[in-house]
């Protein structure tokens, strides 16, 4: 199950469980993996710095790695924002549905979620790639730094150097 599917299922499950109190109310924060303490201005500065480095880079391998880093950080920033909004709004939606007694609205939400989960399977490879680079950004894994470290290691191997490779950050 993808991160998106787990997120959607968790959100719907939280709401569903709260309507059937055998497990009790579930208004606590979700267990979806995202950074609840994300420093947005700092993330924007990181993205701008990576973009500036990308604009100056001529090596195609480095460009691809920097593009993935920039894209991953943007996706991670968006993911964290969406998750935070859902965590904040889901209890309000649940309370509204309870107060109004409008299960038809709840059913519509379920249909939207399940339709989203049945997305075009032809997109799975692209989505998996984007999800991977997003999660790498969330884990603070830089493709660019990995590329430079691998190049340093390869150069050290062929030069016969016994000194450990250095990474340019």
User: What is the strand content?
Assistant: under 5%
Name the overall outline. elongated
| Count of strand segments | 0
Q: Report the sheet with the most strands, covering strand number, pairing sense and barrel closure.
A: none
Q: CA-to-CA gap between the ends?
A: 34 Å
Q: How many distinct helices?
A: 6
Helix fraction by DSSP (H/I, runs of at least 4):
over 70%
Helix/strand/pairing category: mainly alpha
What is the C-alpha radius of gyration, as a whole number of Å?
Answer: 21 Å
Extract low-pLDDT stretches. 20-31
Question: What integer is the average pLDDT?
Answer: 77
Oligomeric composition of the shown chains:
single chain
Order of helices and strands: HHHHHH
Describe the structure.
It is a single chain. By secondary structure, this protein is mostly helical. 72% of the residues lie in helices and 0% in strands. The protein contains 6 helices and no strands. It has helices at 3-19, 40-56, 60-100, 103-117, 124-138, 143-159. Helix 1 (3-19) runs parallel beside helix 3 (60-100) and helix 2 (40-56) runs antiparallel to helix 3 (60-100). The longest helix is centred in the middle third of the chain and has 41 residues, at 60-100. The model is unreliable at 20-31 (pLDDT under 50).
